[in-house]
Write a structure and sequence with these properties.
six-stranded mixed sheet, globular, alpha+beta, 15 helices, Cytochrome Bc1 Complex, Chain A, domain 1, 2 domains, 411 residues
């Protein structure tokens, strides 16, 4: 059984940037997360955050985009860059012994990007092509419209990206967004894996000394959602299967019932032996896969069930989904089933925390949600203590059909 896990130590660097670091032997690899508060919650135009963050590595004052790519390849580094609702993420994996040599390159494209027009044209064209391909996939379209319904049509986060948005993004848009978000005032660092004082000093010298960037501290103020509850069908002709998304906004991570709701979600549809899989796949054969999950949306969370089924099975699948939710609310939950779920969750947590760099995702998510790093240990305590009666109480309080959004995309 898992015991209390080590959490990152935190230090304030000379310029006020927070560095959260968790040392450990991970085959000599270090992971550096460079995070900027803002994300697409503060963008003034669709796709600004995505393109501004993605284009950082396409050229800077000291290095061309080609030189940056060659440096990353030379040192065997891997980098990921993406934006979420409240944050822009830059994630670097590299051998610890190479980090000091590579950091000047990363520092330069983070602090002094040029957003070259030629590179923007290529990135924009490639991203639009990828968007158009995905727009033919029912599961992708269902996710887009589920998020729109989750926030509401008039909400700034409820707009669905269109193909023409890719044509409309300009270099000036990226420069404007960069000046709004990127500076030491909005920067937070996570460092995990094999590192010592020399590595910490190198990171401090790159991002923790002196003021850089003109952006003020980002004020992320997301309006309350105005969810479109109920059924919505988006027709896509000539599709053999339909994609389904059913769910709603649910508890924030700090709520005292949240951990028990997470456990209940696993029992309902969070693993292969769940109730939804047993009923809808194994007994009725309506689908190959169905899953329920609780995903973070900024500082909130959403409960969501996802599946795909032949068009003629959509209605009976939905009926069985609500039947299983009602069973959780009205019928006693067997103690043996709760014990099985408990063991499954603990096993998954052991796997998730097997490598120190793998833990970073959990701690970054805790930071994004505003929850403390010790939330991981509090979740473990909740898993150990949960009872069938407690899970039924949570089901009755929070799994309410009248709160659910239903999105079906297909013929």
């Amino acid at each position: 059984m898992l015991r209390n896990l080590a959490v990152p130590a935190t230090r304030a660097l000379p310029n006020g940037v927070s560095l959260h670091h968790l040392p450990g032997e991970d085959k000599g690899v270090v992971r550096l997360d460079i995070l900027f508060r803002g994300g697409y919650s503060v963008q003034r135009k669709s796709l600004q955050a995505l393109f501004a963050n993605r284009m950082l590595r396409e050229g800077s004052e000291g290095f061309s985009g080609t030189e940056i790519s060659r440096k990353l390849d030379y040192y065997g580094a891997w980098i990921d860059m993406y934006s979420s609702q409240e944050c822009n993420h830059i994630i670097l994996y590299v051998l610890a012994k190479h980090l000091p040599q590579l950091l000047p390159v990363v520092e330069d494209f983070v602090k002094r990007p040029l957003f070259p027009q030629d590179n923007l044209d290529v990135v924009r064209r490639n991203n639009k092509a990828h968007f158009l391909i995905n727009s033919k996939k029912v599961e992708v379209v269902a996710q887009r419209y589920f998020e729109q319904a989750l926030w509401g049509l008039s909400h700034p986060l409820g707009s669905v990206v269109q193909a023409e948005d890719y044509d409309a993004i300009t270099r000036d848009d990226l420069l404007q967004y960069y000046s709004d978000v990127y500076s030491h005032r909005n920067c937070t660092l996570f460092l995990t894996g094999t590192h010592n004082s020399a590595v910490i000093d190198a990171v401090t010298n790159a991002f923790g000394r002196g003021e850089w960037g003109t952006a003020p501290q980002a004020m992320v103020d997301v309006p309350a959602p105005a969810s479109l509850v109920g059924h919505r069908k988006i027709v896509m002709e000539d599709t053999l299967q339909s994609a389904l998304k059913v769910g709603c906004f649910t508890l924030p991570s700090a709520h005292p019932d949240f951990f028990d709701l997470r456990i209940l979600n696993v029992l309902l549809g969070g693993y292969f032996g769940s109730r939804l899989m047993s009923n809808i796949r194994e007994e009725n054969g309506y689908t190959y896969d169905i899953i329920s999950e609780i995903d973070a949306y900024g500082r909130g969370n959403a409960f969501m069930v996802s599946s795909q089924a032949a068009n003629e099975y959509v209605a009976p699948l939905l009926a069985e989904l609500y039947k299983e939710i009602e069973r959780l609310r009205e019928e006693d939950i067997p103690a043996a089933e709760v014990e099985l779920v408990r063991n499954y969750i603990m096993g998954e947590l052991c796997r998730e925390f097997e490598g120190v760099t793998a833990k970073t995702e959990v701690f970054v998510n805790a930071w994004l949600s505003g929850d403390g790093f010790d939330s991981v240990n509090r979740y473990i305590d909740a898993v150990k203590a949960v009872t069938p009666q407690r899970l039924q109480q949570v089901a009755r309080k929070y799994l309410l059909r009248e709160n659910m959004i239903e999105i079906v995309v297909g013929a």
